[in-house]
């Protein structure tokens, strides 16, 4: 009616049904495309949040292939690629055995690790109309998660010395390498993840920290990410 486009009365039902379906697909599968504003900072009350950068949605895009991937709070792939290329690239962030399903995390901005499982479930239901049944959804709330070499749970005892040595090396890496240099060390980071994936029982703090660094390296963030031990 608004456009003045004439639809024959006998086709109104078909067109109406199609529009409802398209709107439903868009609502559940569309992704906001945002522009980062690195020169602007967020104000919270009277405090200047210098490490929180603003971004603004510029469009909504429908990615038919990306919409096929399911969610996990413990994803094994990461979306990459720049908006200017009009292309999204999917990259593995850890070893993926043959036959395993590919997952990424829905709602990168609205889902935070400090949230309870119940809070996450509400967001899933309100925004994506599903319930996450994966146990890893609650990992970040488990205060007994092992973190460093002294708490590690080794699956392969013969590799214990090597794993502990590499964990200490990774902690040194964290102290000496800046967040803007992570992308230069992806080969090392992938090697460390592969070692832990094979030999350490999860959840394990250094494993998750390394995954976040790999994520940052692929997404090209220019500001530091917060780590929750």
Automatic annotation (TrEMBL):
The UniProt entry's GO biological process terms, in alphabetical order, are: methylation
The organism's superkingdom is given as Eukaryota
- Report the Gene3D superfamilies cross-referenced here: SET domain (2.170.270.10)
Q: Which residues cross the membrane?
A: none
The answer to whether keyword Ubl conjugation applies is: no
Spell out the GO cellular component terms annotated for this protein, sorted alphabetically and separated by semicolons.
Answer: cytoplasm; nucleus
Domain SET, by residue range, is 67-107
Name the keywords, alphabetized: Methyltransferase, S-adenosyl-L-methionine, Transferase
Q: What GO MF terms are annotated?
A: histone deacetylase binding; N-methyltransferase activity; protein methyltransferase activity; S-adenosylmethionine-dependent methyltransferase activity
SUPFAM superfamilies listed in its UniProt record: SET domain
Report the protein name in the record.
SET domain-containing protein
Tell me which species this is from. Macrosiphum euphorbiae (potato aphid)
